Amino acid sequence: MERFGFVGLPNAGKSSLYNALAGGGALAAPYAFATTDPNVGVAKVPDTRLDRLAEMSSSRKVVHAAVQFVDIGGLVEGASTGEGLGNRFLAHIREVDAVVFLLRGFVDTDVPGPDDPLECLRVLEIELALADLETLESQINKKRKQARVDKSLQAEVAALDEAYAVLAEGTPIYRSDIPESTREALRPWFLLTNKPVMAVVNVGEDDLDRIDEIVAPVAAELGGRAEVLGICVQLEAEAAELVGEERVEMLEALGLGEGALERFVHTAYDLLGLRTFLTTGDKESRAWTFRAGSKAPQAAGRIHTDFERGFIRAEVIRWDELLEIGSWAKAKAAGKIRVEGKEYVVDDGDVMEFLFNV
Ligand SMILES: Nc1nc2c(ncn2[C@@H]2O[C@H](COP(=O)(O)OP(=O)(O)OP(=O)(O)O)[C@@H](O)[C@H]2O)c(=O)[nH]1
Ligand SMILES: [Mg+2]
Questions:
Q1: Exposed (0-12), middle (13-18) or buried (19+): which is 295, by Cβ within 10 Å?
Q2: What is the secondary structure of 201-220 as a DSSP string?
Q3: How far is ligand 2, taken at its centre, from the CA of residue 144, in Å?
């Protein structure tokens, strides 16, 4: 399951975003450091393709893909030297798959703190870069000594030096020109700025018609190095507390479309290069997440390692084609199910069955 860690200044709306996505459960309050212990939650990835396939197959069970959110406490300028909650709690985001910067863009005099998203971004990036520098400083000399004896460590030391130089200039690694291969070599160090970034700009409820305008400077500043999304977190959190029709009505009335979770997950999947394939039957219909570019055996391995090890072939049809025909059996009889081998690159929206032998 993919994990997303929320990072932002106090009162940026991290806990509110958590509530908007996970459907509640976190304390959101207009004072700094309302969150001290992290909130961890899981949300189902909405997927109407899955819902429709499940209906077609009269599946007894429907299993959506899921994502995990970690809402941590607020970060302030000077956190690296112990201000606010300090940066010890950043340990909670060391192991997330992507960092979500929550940048405040709403104006509300009852809620203290800066409301310029670019200023928020600047402070966050400095603190994370400083935390990474600290991590490197404590390790780099030791590694260097080891590398004198063990030459195989030289590449790693070079990667650490490169990261250090960039961070010392105040540039987060994800925004630097450090090549992907070096970033990969740095993975085991769990550096905070070496993770993929998604910036969520929290837009005020009175600015719904200006979302693009408020998000634009952030997108320009990040220049394609991060995914950027504008969300009116407060309204979305309120909508998330409603169920069924009421929720749909509120979202529709506000012109919010399918809601924050749908948009968030869509952007997050883009960021991480994630795709979905589906399985369907009377017992169960299920969505499976895989990395773009995966071949059939790897995709099969998402279900069970035996499926990957003993992979023989896959039977495949696009989800919409299958729906149109009406059932797997009919599709098979009509010769519409493709047979694919080991080299098949799985596509988003493929419905699959695997043949394997172990
Ligand atoms: N007016 C307005 N208020 C908002 C919006 N988003 C969040 N708030 C309010 O701002 C306050 C802070 O929100 P939280 O979600 O608790 O912020 P946080 O980032 O979790 O804060 P800490 O846990 O203290 O770091 C709450 O009172 C929210 O109701 C918004 O879009 N508009
Ligand atoms: Mg909070």
A1: middle
A2: EE--GGGGGGHHHHHHHHHH
A3: 40
Q: What CA–CA distance (Å, rounded) separates 24 from 54?
A: 27
Instruction: For residues 96 and 227, give the distance between their C-alpha atoms in angstroms, rounded to a whole number.
Output: 16
Report the half-sphere exposure of 182 (CA within 13 A, side-chain side).
Answer: 17
Ligand nearest to the CA of 100: 1
For atom 23 of ligand 1, the residue with the nearest CA is 35
Give the 3-state secondary structure of residue 339. Answer: strand
In the chain, how long is the greatest CA-to-CA distance? 68
pTM value is 0.89
Kindly report the backbone phi and psi dihedral angles of residue 114, in degrees, each rounded to the nearest multiple of 5, phi listed first.
-65, 145
pLDDT digits (tens, 9 = 90+) for 48-80: 999 999 999 999 999 999 999 988 878 878 777
Distance 118 CA to ligand 2 centre (A): 20
